[in-house]
Structures are given as structure tokens and as C-alpha cells.
Amino acid sequence: MQKKSAIIGRAFEKLEKTLRYEFKDLNLLKESLIHKSYSYENLAEKIKHNERLEFLGDAVLELVISDLLMEHFSDSREGELSRLRASIVNETQLATVASTLDLGKLLYLGKGEEQTKGRTKNSILADAYEALLAAIYIDGGYEKVYSVIQQQFIPLIEQAKKSGFDRDFKTQLQQEAQSRYKQVPRYKVREENGPAHNKTFQVAVYVKRQLLALGSGKSKKEAEQDAARLALQILKEEDRF
What is the torsion angle, in degrees rounded to the nearest 10, for the CA atoms of residue 16, residue 101, residue 56 and residue 83? Predict the structure, then answer.
């Protein structure tokens, strides 16, 4: 048991070093990494899972990203900023950030989630990342979590400035599809996950009944924009060959 605790301790230290943030209360860090499946399988121990932290982290992340976008896109209108935020803050992107932090290896999962490769599921990774941000916010305050989010998302925001990422992806895809196929894209909700106050939507985009891409987001509109963005990337990749 001591050996396992030492390994976990070193893993937490590595995560803190990557985040450039040292927790005053390591219990908050641990709670952010506990999936509900682990909590439910250990009911007698009354272990808190990370859903409440995830709820708060979602709001904290949206606020900080909105703040950063206001600073970097001072001339953009509200609609453009909303689309840009949706393209950056989505399940796929958050899962990617979580993976760079190796959060998957640190998660506390129930046996069922372990067997179904829960450590690599985008939804679980994205939720854990949001929970981690909430833990930093509670432990250290807004300035500390702002600094953590800034270091991880500024490269994406800079990329957005160079590539015109603030444009409407659905409009771009519609223009591209009409030019290539003489048809407009169709969007269909494939899945709805999460509690009513914090749902995640998965949307498929089709052209000529052919599935082009799957997108995700906290609203149907965000998921549609994400699907359109991914579809455009796929079409660009096809053009290279």
C-alpha cells in the first residue's frame, strides 16, 4: 500500500510540475480525478466523485477562455467570439489537453470503465480536465487557474488568429459542399450525454447521405460547428492526395 501511495504521490508531483501549480490541498486534486464509477463501487467509503467539480470547472474554463478571446480578438463581434470559443472549448479539444497531461493514467475508475477503456474516452478525459480546473480554482483562486488555462490554450488561440479560426464553420462547409457536390450538409444529433444542467451533444454531418464527421459540444449549435470544422479538415486532407 505504501509503495502504491508513493507512486501516486510521484505522479501527482509530475502533474503539478507540468501545470506549474502546487496544490495546498491534495485531496482536491484527487477528487478531481475520481470518476463516479469508482465512487459507486466503493459506496461504503463515501468517496466523492468529480461531477460537482466538473460543473464548476466548465464555467471557470468558459470564463477564462472568454477573457482571453476578448484580449486577443479585440475587434471581433460577439457572434464571432462565440463561434471561436465553441471551436476551442469542446470535448475533443479538452480530451486532447487532458491527454497531454496524462490524466488518463491518474484517473480512479470502476472496473466496468477500466474494461471498456475508460482511460482513453474523450468524455471522461474532458470531464476530468474541467474538474481539475475547478480544483485549482478552489485551491488557489482565479489568477492561478487563469495562468494554467492560459499556458495550455494560448497556442490554440494564436493558431486561430493565423488561420481565421473565428469564421463560421457551418457556412464554410455549406459553401464547400455546394461547390463540390451541389448539395448542402445535413446535421443529425447522434448522442446526448450527461445531466440536464451540463449535457454534451454529439452531432453527425452528412453530405449526399455520406457521413463526413462527428462533432461534440455543450450545445447542439456548438456540436454542429465542431462537426463542420472537422469535416472541413477531412476535405482538406483529401485534397492533398
Answer: 140
